[in-house]
Amino acid sequence: MRINLACGILCHLKEVAMLSTIFGLFLMPAMIIILALFLALRKGGQR
Amino acid sequence: MNTFGLHTNPWALAAFILYVVMMISVGIITARFSSRGIGEFFLGGRKMKSFVVALAAVTSGRSAWLLIGVSGMAFTRGVSAVWAVVGYIVVELFMFIFPGKRLRYFTGKMGDITIPDYLESRFEDRRHWLRLFALIPILIFMTAYVAAQFNAGGKSLAASFNVTPLQGILITAAIVIFYTVLGGFMAVCWTDTLQALFMIFALMILPVIAIIHFGGLGRLFSVLKDVSPGYLDTFAISFGAWLGFVGIGFGSPGNPHILNKYMSIEEPEKLNQTGLIGTLWNVLMAWGAIFIGLAGRALYQDVANLPGKDPENVYPLLGSQHLHPFLFGLTIAAIFAAIMSTASSQLLVASSAVVRDAYQKIIAGHKQIPEKRLVLISRVFTLVVALVALLFAAYANKLVFYLVLFAWGGLGAAFGPAILLSLYWKKITRAGVIAGILVGSLTEIIWYLVPSLKALVAEWVPAFFLSFLAVVLVSLNTRPPDRVEEYMQYMKGRY
User: Is B229 on the interface with A (CB under 8 A)?
Assistant: First the structure.
């Protein structure tokens, strides 16, 4: 159900916006947060 | 000038007064702690908690530029405005986790309170040349920065209440001076944290409500598609402009009011999670501002429909039309939160340059000055620096955006390369750092003043790289400090 909803939103966005819009507004912040999670939670990263 | 008439609405006025009372209360509560000594006054006694450091570091670096500048930029140029926020967010993430931690370990071991303190310890500079070369640009750029913030505060107050811009400047300055002079670094960090909550609230709630009112994201994009061909394209930006935008991040490693937040954390091991919290906050605030600009463009279509035909007014206008008056009051308070969090942090650094670096370490020399007296002197000079900035603010008439970026880039170029290299490179020398400070500051100013150079790329990019080059070239031809191996161990927390 969740996957369908996500697909629905993405498909709808693709109809109304370009891929580069989706990249700038959604993927880029998501990538930065993933990078932050990776750097903060990585093993041996306490020092 | 009084565009939004906040004073006529009791709900909005109550929200704003609530904010001001909170700031003043923090100043009063923290006054006793900050009176213990100069380390407490200027660095919170290195007792700051992870969450407070995360929020204080990101809000003090942002200023009103984020709320009104970035949202205005997104209104004008569209999705490509995201490049203005990406650079500093990524750089600051790395700063928290890598250089920030090394800086905290080293300064904790050596008892350093300020960035000139750090440079003097790291390069065994007993003649204080480094301290002198560092404190001059810090004083100049910080005072200009504080003045720009006061000016922005005056402008925003005049747009929201029935006051003139000059009265607005005086009110902004009075609040900042009150809590900074009383509570020092502890007050600055705690008010920054509260201000971060105001900012995130405003930057999250406003775009969501505006987009819902507009009919959803789909409708928003359909309308924005017709604004101009590249409006929704992230990559509709020239290389020079892109470099200038991303290069805003070059300011972060050299701005002492951000660096001293890393130095103040109680447990340096927690800088990893601090970085995560700070980055989450940075991302949510930045993209909130971008969506405010986009929603505003869809709603108001043309800049001519904004008060004063100024794109920077899109944020308060959206708030006034789409939020309950109490929430609108909070969004206006968030502008002041952004302004005051930066101004107070900068003010404290400027004052520490005078009291700690010039007076205690150079003028007084080896003479022992009682801590209580030092705190008193610190408070007096914080007031004096604020009054000087106030005078500048009354006569400054340039756009907030450029004033802030000029100081931001100047400090970034003067100190950024030297600080980063000093934390990782054993061969860096005192002469190299001085060369970096001089080349960085001068390039920033000269590049800014020559229109043909400025048209190529924003001044902070070449200033940073030339400063970096100057540090490396001069260091390779001079001798590094004797105890450099030992210092590198300190930076890893091995005492």
Answer: no
- Classified as helix, coil or strand, B429 is coil
CB proximity B488 to A under 8 Å: no
| B88 part of contact set with chain A, CB < 8 Å | no
**Tokens describing residue B404:** 């802030």
Whether the per-residue pLDDT at A12 is higher than 80: the answer is no
Asked if B87 has any chain A CB less than 8 Å from its own CB, the reply is: no
Query: Nearest Cα to B155, choosing from B143, B171, B140?
Result: B171
Spatial separation of the C-alpha atoms in residues B407 and B144, rounded to whole Å: 7
User: In this structure, what are the phi and psi dihedrals at residue A4, rounded to the nearest 5 degrees?
Assistant: -60, -40
pLDDT for the residue numbered B300: 93
Mean pLDDT over B211-217 rounds to: 90
ipTM of the complex: 0.89
Pairwise CB contact (< 8 Å): A13 & B221: yes
- ∠ at Cα B50 (B49, B52), nearest 5°? 70
What pLDDT shows up at residue B399? 44
Could you report the per-residue pLDDT of A25-43, keeping only the tens digit for each?
A: 999 999 999 999 999 998 6
Q: Determine the residue among A15, A33, A42 to mutate to test chain B binding: the one whose Cβ has the most chain B Cβ atoms within 10 Å.
A: A33
Query: B38 by DSSP, 3-state: which?
Result: helix
**CB B157 within 8 Å of CB B168:** yes
Does residue B420 have a pLDDT over 90? yes
Q: Taking Cα atoms as reference points, which of B107, B175, B190, B101 lies closest to residue B343?
A: B175
The pLDDT of residue B231 is: 94
**Cβ-based contacts of A13 with chain B (< 8 Å):** 217-218, 221
Q: Is B490 on the interface with A (CB under 8 A)?
A: no
pLDDT score, position A4: 62
Would you call B122 an interface residue with chain A, using a CB distance cutoff of 8 Å?
A: no
Chain centre to alpha carbon of residue B139: 15
Residue B247's pLDDT band, with cuts at 50, 70 and 90, is very high
Q: Which residues of B touch A20 (CB under 8 A)?
A: 79, 232-235
Looking up tokens 């609040």, which residue turns up?
B175
Tokens coding B452: 């043909």
Nearest CA in chain B to A36: B276
Q: Taking a C-beta distance cutoff of 8 angstroms, is the pair B50, B192 a contact? A: no
Residues B487 and B270: their CA atoms lie apart, in Å, by 21
**Mean pLDDT over all residues of chain B?**
90
- Helices and strands counted in chain B (H then E): 22, 0
Nearest CA to B410 among B192, B251, B216, B246? B251
CB atoms within 10 A of CB B212: 12
Report d(CA B18, CA B6) in Å as an integer: 14
